[in-house]
Structures are given as C-alpha cells and as structure tokens.
Amino acid sequence: MNKLKNNTKTGTVIKAGIWYTLSSFLTRGVAFITTPIFTRLLSSNDYGEYSNFVAWAGIIVIVATMDMHATVNSARYDYNNLDGYLSSVAITGTIVTSVLWGIVQLFPDFFCEFFSMEMPYINLLFIITMVSPALQLLQAKNRINYKYKSYVALSFGSVFLSTFVSLLLVVFMQNKLAGRIIGHYGTVFLIDLCVYFYIIYKGRQFKWSECKYALLICIPMVPHLLSKYILNQSDRIMIKQFCGASDTAFYSLAYNCAMIPIILATATNIAWSPWSTEQVHHEKYSRIRQASYYYIMLFYAIVVGIFLLGPEIILILGGEKYAQAVNVLPPVVMGAAFQFLYNLYVSLEQFAKKTIGMAIGTTTAALINIGLNWIFIPKFGYIAAAYTTLFGYACLLIIHYLLAKRTGYSRAYDEKFIFISISFLFAIMLLSLWFYTISPIIRYALATAMVFVVIYVGLKKQDLIKSILRK
Fold first, then answer.
1. 299-303 long-range Cβ contacts below 8 angstroms, 24+ apart
2. pLDDT, tens digit, for every residue of 25-71?
3. What are the mean pLDDT values of the chain's consecutive 10-residue runs (471 residues total)?
4. Cβ(369)–Cβ(231) below 8 Å
5. What is the pLDDT of residue 40?
6. How far is the C-alpha of 167 from the C-alpha of 79, rounded, in Å?
7. Cα–chain-centroid distance for residue 268?
8. I need a surface site. Which of 198, 300, 403, 466 has the fewest CB within 10 A?
9. Verdict on whether the full-model pTM lies above 0.85
10. Contacts by residues 447-450 (CB-CB < 8 Å, ≥ 24 positions apart)
11. How far apart are CA 371 and CA 391, in angstroms?
12. 285-308 and 462-470 are packed helices; what angle lies between their axes, rounded to 10 degrees?
C-alpha cells in the first residue's frame, strides 16, 4: 500500500515538474512572440517609454515586496496555519509599498525626474505593487502542494488575458503608450486584487511574528535580487536618461532577441538545478561534468544560431525601422551566455548556503556595470550599454566561480572547458558582426551546417543523452 502511495506521489511530482517547466517556458515566451506585433503598433518612442516603465516596475516590486513569496516553502514547516501566514505576508507587502509611495508623494518633482516618467505612471507603479505579491504567494502554495493544474491555469490566464487586453487597447486607444501600460498592468492588477482578497479572506489574520519571520529571511537577499535585476535593467533606464526613448526601443528589441536563450535557460534550469545539487550531495561530480558538456554546448549552439541569423530575427521582430538594433544584438545575446554559466555556480552557492557572498558578488558586478554605463553611454550612445553589460556579466561569472570554488563544489564543472569555450564563443560573437557586412549566404550556410552537426552529435550520442535525461 505504501509502495503504491509513493509511486502515486512520484507520478504527481513528475507531472508537476513537467507542467511547471512548460508553464515557465510558454508564459515567458508570450512576451517574445508578441514583440513583432507591439513593435509595429507602437512608435519607437512609445516602445522605449514602455520598456522604461517595465524596468522600474521590477525594481519597485523587489524593494517593496522583497520576494517574500520565496519564504512559503520554509514557512509550511514552521506554521500550522499556512493560509494565515499568506495573509500576514500579503498585508506586509501592502504596508511597505504604502510607506514608499508616501515618500514619493512628498517629493513629486524629484521622483518624476528620477524615474524619467510622469506622475500618473509613477502612481500606477505603486498601486499595482500594493497587491502584486498576492498571485506569487498563491502560486507558491500551489507549487508546494503540487496543484499544478491551478498553477498553470493562473499563469496562463494572467499572461494571456493581460496580453489580449493590451492588444485591444493599443489598437483602439489614441494614446498607444497608455493602452500598452494600462492594458497589461491594469489587467494584472485586477487579477492580483482578486487573489489578494481571496488570501485575506482565507487567512483572516495579521501577525507581527509572521511578518518578522518573512522579513528576516528576505531582507538579506534584497541586495542580491536588486543587483541582479539592476544588472539586467539598468542599461535601459540609463539609455532612456542619456539618449532618449527611441534608442531605448532599439536596445530593448535586441534584448528581447536575447530572451530566446534566456527563456530556454530559465526553463531548463528548473530541472537542472535540483538534479545537479542532488548529485553534489552524493558527491557524484563526474556525472554532472559529463552531462554539463552536452548541456552547455547545446546552449552555445542556440546562441551561435542567433548570432548568424541576427539581421533576420531583428527584421521579423521589429521590422526595417529597427534594423540598426542588429549592432547590439551579438553582445546582448553573449551576455545571456554568461548568465547561463554563472547560474551553474550560483546553484552550488545556494546548496552551500553561502547567500551573503552571493549578495556581495552580484552587488559588485551591478555597481561595475552602472559605473561603466555612466561613463560610456553619454560618449558612445546605446551601443556602449551592450558591451558594458556584457562586461558586467563576465565579472559576475568570474565572481560566482571564485565564490563557488571556496565551497569546494566547483569541481562539479570542468572549469578549463567552461572558460576556454566561452572565449571561443566571444570570438564568434565578434566575427558575427563582420558577417553582417558581407553576403548573407555565408551566414545561412554556416547556420545550416551547425544544424546538421547538432543532429549528427545527437544521433551518435543518443544513448548517452537518453541516459542523462533519465537520471
């Protein structure tokens, strides 16, 4: 009977894992799929303004809510009334956001200039943040209870509804920027508000001890989360400040192209990270190394494919008016490769519970990036931001590699292979910029040859790859 119960639970866990991965991949992919539509409906100026709004929305959410939904996994063991805990955390997020919003209201002129946007949009940022943790809290509860059907329904429902409403408002409203922002964030706010009231009704409590519990866990992680986000978004914010909304749009479109490997890396990491840390726990380092060669090279193949087909991808996503964005595509996509690699080492640091070092390392890389942006964007324009951000990610990889090496777990990966291979990938990135100036037939031929190589290696090593996937 117990064996049957364990098999049933195992089946549920496997199903949940598959659906969580697909949900993450597809919901994040919606932004990429709809990019060609919005770039054609919006002017480059409006597209840049929207990118600036998105960047600030993410920063405010991190500062005000501190990713407190991440504490649900541990809180379920420490509190019998999990619904009550969710209620307390949701209200805590509202209180912190209200305090920050009050500070902004005291100095409106300063913050309008600081955010580089009008006050109505700043107010909207804080209004949506007040209830934004609600859906994340409920989804965290659904994950730990393996309610993958509810999880997927809420994820898909929120993303597709907000995208659909955005499209309608952008088409029919005269102010396209307002339609894009209100359509997306207004819809998300209404969904979050309904979930917020559901959580409060279900929990019906607010306890300071539970707030303190969540804050003590999350506050030390804020520098890491904020620095990581700033490293991703500060370039667009600073381009908006120094160069204007149109240049922000060109850069943002190139960044959306980089979402192809980033989405893939995020989705596969959901499965890779737990598996790799389990192997570390059992000291099976050779198994990780063996699998990592194929995992890394497959990711590189996707990156090289984007290098080779960059002009065509830009044309599809943005049209001819965004053609100049191809100049920043290779370094931006190369940055995604560095992100992919440093996440391998971050998982080792998390396993070793060295989160303070993580925060210091990520903060250092973010500060380097901001400093370089401040120096070079005013001199060389938005193209400089692609290379300064790339340098920031390179620093991040080196920092997290050194931190992981101190834990003793870094031998899970072949460091010589990682650093030599990423150097070759960097050389290919520089070569791709030259390819854009010559006949596209050469790029097409190389891309076709690479596809055949990937297929050949996959067929030749299919037994080994199947064995790795089963494990």
1. 299/261, 299/264, 299/265, 299/337, 299/340, 300/337, 300/421, 300/425, 301/450, 301/454, 302/260, 302/261, 302/264, 303/261, 303/333, 303/334, 303/336, 303/337, 303/425
2. 677 777 777 878 888 888 888 888 888 888 888 888 888 888 787 77
3. 44 62 70 80 85 85 82 77 90 92 92 86 91 86 76 83 92 91 92 93 88 81 75 78 81 79 73 74 83 88 91 85 87 91 83 71 84 90 89 90 84 90 94 89 90 84 64 54
4. yes
5. 84
6. 43
7. 13
8. 466
9. no
10. 447/305, 447/308, 447/309, 450/301, 450/304, 450/305, 450/308
11. 12
12. 120
10 Å CB burial of residue 306 (0-12, 13-18, 19+) is: buried
Which residue ranges make up each domain of the chain?
21-206, 225-470
Q: Which residues neighbour 320 within 8 Å (Cβ) at sequence distance 6 or greater? A: none
> Contact 392/385 with Cβ under 8 angstroms?
no
Are 175 and 49 in contact, with CB atoms under 8 Å apart?
Answer: no
Q: For residue 194, give the amino acid letter.
A: C
Q: How many CB atoms lie within 10 A of CB 470?
A: 6
Spatial separation of the C-alpha atoms in residues 150 and 155, rounded to whole Å: 9
User: What are 201's two structure tokens?
Assistant: 């009704």
